[in-house]
Design a protein that fits this description.
Layout (H helix, E strand, L loop, with lengths): L1 E4 L6 H13 L7 E4 L23 H10 L7 H14 L15 H23 L3 E2 L11 E5 L7 H11 L4 E6 L2 E6 L2 E5 L11 H14 L7 H7 L2 H4 L3 H23 L6 H10 L9 H9 L25 E5 L4 H6 L6 H12 L8 E4 L6 E4 L2 E4 L4 H18 L3 E5 L1 H8 L5 H4 L1 E5 L2 E6 L2 H6 L3 H27 L1
Parallel strand pairs: 1-2, 4-5, 8-9, 8-12, 12-14
Antiparallel strand pairs: 3-4, 5-6, 6-7, 10-11, 13-14
Helix pairs in contact: 2-4, 3-4, 4-5, 4-9, 11-14
The structure holds uracil.
Length: 483
């Protein structure tokens, strides 16, 4: 084991420098502990190597690092290093996409830390209140403002640029238990932690201000002439801007709080559902499809289960004569836990109704039972499942078909057709009746194909062709019944 010295409130730059040396020395996370440099340690400390080139990490991990490093939890260093090690070293190529794996326990914890940090920054922006210094010792007659704030995490340097941008022409000081920021004559400096001022005693902050002011005052920076020509000194005390500053601060804060509430940085809905799913223990029911559905809810046959909200199993009566098979659930299906309930589902329902097929008597499922997507901000962009994922999920499709024993299986689109036929299928060439490993099948288009067509005339024509397919299927089934 090695002990790596790192400050309790290390910022990103310090962590990167420490991590760089550990990575270059080939020290895996299992042999490291991170400790305050002031704490005596009996463990050997890794050799300092200052000359090491910076490492590069994928952008999504860099963003996670920037936020999570500010969290108070002491285990953030070990978690970040664990992830960094896997990104840069795992099986020599590294798990470059690790940060996108929301269900990875380390990433999940770091994402939670990052979220809390962002909330804390929002809170500081929203709720910090400046008050005007009462001391008369004004710098060139200019008012000064102080504020006390108690953040939960080490966010001072992350939060302060907001105030610099908002109040560039004010002199102000923000005191916190994790450090002090002072903005004077357009220059920002940081100082040590401050003591909480007693309730109602403003003099403490005033004195703090004066201490800073006296020690940091740089006469060379004050360009009185330029300032007075822009804004005659005589007016400074009563300038509306300066008189309004505290109000403006308060209002800006309320607006920021409003924006914060509208988009509170909360994890998207699906993240919460994923967490709930992981915490659920499923009892296996007796009815065959219900039992399969319950069993599939814990499916880990491929990696798609990690980022999806839940398994979206097939739905419909167990004695259905027709089974429709789509590709995979989309965003809305993933949230609802039901197949074909989103835009493609609406299109499908409309076409079924036009072909006089009652959706209530058919069974509807997908070749792949978990939503595959790429996160883009809070949006999830559909990704086509690959052959391995389709193969892994065929296990469930086969079991659904064996239980239901439908008279006809309709493949909606190429993914379903390939899964059922066990080979590559061209929908346009093979559209119509098909053989699916000895079972009666029918190949048609996927309803989402219609949603993607930009040309209205083509869309109308393709929709009519789709309805015609469904019509043919209904007639086929009716003929069978008669026979
Ligand atoms: N597309 C599919 O293939 N299945 C669904 O359930 C929804 C959209």
């Amino acid at each position: 084991m090695y002990s790596v010295p790192i400050s309790r409130d290390a910022d990103e730059a310090e962590f990167r420098a420490v991590a760089r040396r550990c990575l270059a020395s080939g020290l895996g996370p299992q042999v490291l502990t991170f400790a305050d440099p002031d704490q005596p340690s009996l463990l050997p400390r890794p050799l300092p190597r200052e000359d090491i080139a910076p490492f590069t990490v994928p952008r999504n991990f860099a963003a996670l690092l920037t936020d999570a490093i500010c969290h108070r939890a002491p285990d953030r260093f070990a978690l970040l290093y664990d992830a960094l090690w896997r990104i840069t070293h795992y099986k020599s190529h590294g798990e470059r996409e690790l940060a996108t794996r929301a269900a990875d326990p380390v990433i999940a914890k770091l994402a939670d830390y990052a979220h809390q940090v962002r909330r804390d920054i929002h809170k500081m922006h929203a709720f910090l209140r400046f008050r005007e210094c009462k001391e008369d010792d004004k710098h060139d007659g200019k008012s000064r403002f102080t504020a006390w704030f108690e953040p939960q995490h080490f966010i001072l340097k992350r939060a302060v640029p907001f105030f610099v941008e908002r109040f560039p022409s004010m002199d102000w000081l923000i005191a916190t238990p994790i450090g002090t920021a002072i903005f004077q004559d357009g220059a920002l400096t940081y100082g040590p932690p401050a003591q909480k001022p007693p309730e109602g005693d403003d003099r403490v902050l005033d004195e703090l201000w004066l201490t800073y002011y006296r020690t940091t005052f740089n006469p060379a920076r004050v360009r009185v002439k330029a300032m007075t020509s822009e804004m005659p000194k005589h007016y400074w005390r009563n300038m509306p801007e300066t008189a309004l500053i505290p109000d403006m601060v308060a209002q800006a804060s309320v607006r920021v709080a409003g924006m914060d509430d509208a988009d509170d940085g909360a994890a998207p809905l699906f993240a919460q559902r994923i967490a709930e799913r992981r915490a659920t223990v499923v009892a296996i029911p007796r009815a065959p499809i219900a039992a399969l559905r319950a069993e599939a809810s814990a499916c880990q046959r491929c990696a798609l289960h990690t980022a999806a909200t839940q398994t979206v199993f097939g739905e419909g009566p167990e004695n259905a004569r027709i089974v429709f098979v789509g590709e995979q659930p989309g965003d809305q299906e993933d949230l609802a836990g039901k197949p074909f309930v989103g835009p493609a589902g609406e299109m499908f329902n409309r076409a079924l109704a036009e072909a006089a097929i009652d959706r209530g008597i058919v069974y509807v499922t997908n070749a792949v039972k978990h939503f595959k997507y790429e996160p883009r901000g809070k949006r999830r962009i559909h990704q086509r499942p690959n052959a391995g994922e389709v193969r892994a999920c065929k296990w469930w499709l086969d079991r659904e078909l064996t239980t239901i024993e439908p008279e006809l299986i309709v493949a909606l689109g190429a993914t379903a057709a390939q899964s059922l036929a066990g080979r590559s299928v061209s929908v346009l060439r093979e559209r119509g009746p098909a053989d699916f490993a000895g079972r009666s099948g029918f190949i048609s288009i996927h309803p989402s194909f219609l949603l993607r067509l930009p040309d209205a005339a083509a869309k109308k024509k393709e929709y009519e062709n789709f309805v015609a397919d469904l019509h043919r299927i209904r007639v086929l089934m009716e003929t069978k019944r008669v026979a």
